Amino acid sequence: MQLLDRVRASCLALPEVTERPSHGSPTWFVGAKSVFVTLHADGHHRNGFAHLWCAAPPGAQEELILADPARFFRPPYVGSRGWLGVRLDGEVDWAEIDELCRDAYREVARNGWRPCSTPSRPDPPAERHAPRHQPADLRKQAIGRG
Fold it and tell me: Which of 17, 70, 77, 113 shows the smallest number of beta carbons within 10 Å?
């Protein structure tokens, strides 16, 4: 499956999500206007590698970059607001990408988005293990699988 197809499947599995290009890149929105993930499959500006930008919970950006600076980075423009850059040019942990997309969705929904057509539809179910904002290998250690 291609990179775009994998990220698209992760994002469109969430309630009230739409997709459209923004600044030339596939972008996913909660509702009509609130961006939560952007894919730069061919790179963006000086980051000439495949990556995505996603909203992140407070503190997650710093924690993930410190834990794995080869995989995570502070993206231009949105990094100052806590967004996370995730490299997709190496071996990709798609379960982790799914989780990061869900976290991004929850973060944007939590910060003011309200459903427009299905007010009773809940957020995706929360995971029942280690905090979602840890890299996959740290999460596995935290729940005793690593």
Answer: 70
